[in-house]
Specification:
- By secondary structure, this protein is an alpha/beta fold.
- The protein has two domains: 295 residues, Zn peptidases (Aminopeptidase, 3-Layer(aba) Sandwich), CATH 3.40.630; 135 residues, Aminopeptidase i, Domain 2 (Roll).
- Helices cover 28% and strands 24% of the residues.
- It contains twelve helices and 23 strands.
- Strands 1-2-3-14-4-15-21-17-19 form a nine-stranded mixed β-sheet, sandwiched between helices. It has a seven-stranded antiparallel β-sheet with strand order 8-7-11-5-6-10-9.
- Strand 12 and strand 13 form a beta hairpin.
- The protein is globular, with a radius of gyration of 24 Å.
- The two termini are 39 Å apart.
Amino acid sequence: MSEKEKSAGTLLKEKLFLQKKNGGLLLPEEEIRAAYEYCEDYKRFISFCKTEREFTDWCVPFLEEKGFRPFDPKHKYVAGDKIYLNNRHKAFVAAVVGKRPLDEGLHIAAAHIDSPRLDLKPNPVYEDTELALFKTHYYGGIKRYQWSVTPLALKGVVIRADGTSVTVSVGEEEDEPSFCVTDLLPHLAKEQMDRKLADGLKGEELNVIVGSMPFRDDEASELVKLNLLNLLFEKYGITEADFRSAELTFVPAGKARDMGFDRGLIGAYGHDDRVCAYGELTGLLAAGVPEYTAVACFADKEETGSDGPTGMNGKMLAYFAEDLGAPYGIAGRTILCASKCISADVNCAVDPTFPDVTEKNNSAYLNYGIVITKYTGSGGKYSTNDAPAEYLGEVRRLFDKEHVLWQTGELGKIDNGGGGTVAKYISRLGVDTVDVGVPLLSMHAPMEIASKIDILMMHRASEAFYRAK
């Protein structure tokens, strides 16, 4: 229908109403193809980087190939210099120095690189009914029942008694063993099935089977546990005592997969929040030499409160700003108070099977682009960064100008729950901050679902933000 054939009311509605449209209809075919192509590399990344340690260890060689070098706080950097800071192999900062002086601020994008999982307890190994098992302590907010009878891989690091370390990764390759939490057969689960869903599996029932064969000895006890520890000693040189100085975790095994006959979605473990971290990083690389110094910040511990030296509630970002400005005599707070940030974290998408938990006018949809979330928190915006209107207007104009597909969203209905991001920790440093991320289905499950269109838009949004003048 041409403009001349439209009624006055239709034209006025188009002018005044908020226009929402699926990216699959709105974007040209070449943009759709670009999303599919971009996500091939993303699938390889998300299939490999399942822990914060794997992410940081992947980042170092990847960025060094692109010309990045370790950050030296005594060095004066010039426009175009590329630097990185590896914080304990669990958090990371990458930056490209911009053309403008540091006292005009940084453009910071921040994501977290930890995800819900099953961590081993300090003394995890035990034998019961001639099976060897590991005791776990779940990390982050999970539905515990989702983690039973799911193939798991064991990953992490062990510091041995002599101070040497060994990296563990087993369960991903086809020729490697897998692990799982068991569950009751329905025939014998009447009492269990009468529990509330939240207690379908209790925390102390998340025990992972790791062995069944006994050590061939007629006199020793706990022969299955002995055989397991002997295998671990032969392969890794570790004893039971070494688990006390280890960080080992079970994560869902297997690679990211296309979903749906049209392949428009990706199912994978850890989209939250490495889907945003990846777009943030590729956006930094695509931005060239920026006007303002561009900083990609990747933090640990968001799923448990962002505490510790690798969490965003720590001082990593503040200290980085201080050290960056020190050779020029510029205070870190001066740099940060002039800075801008997008807190790159996911939000929930409307699920057609469970529509009642979301308020549809103020929730995100798959394929509609990235989500700008003005505030998170719960119970009346408690414990949140609430982005100011002026900064929202600035981000909105930028994304519109750069043809980034975006929408707004909340984390469900007001009284249904809520959640938080790292935004509040960055904004308390004096940095204008707003949440921008990818909408997901099945967030915090062993497999989460994201749209390829939205994943590409996270990259485009990050690039546009870093390039902004």
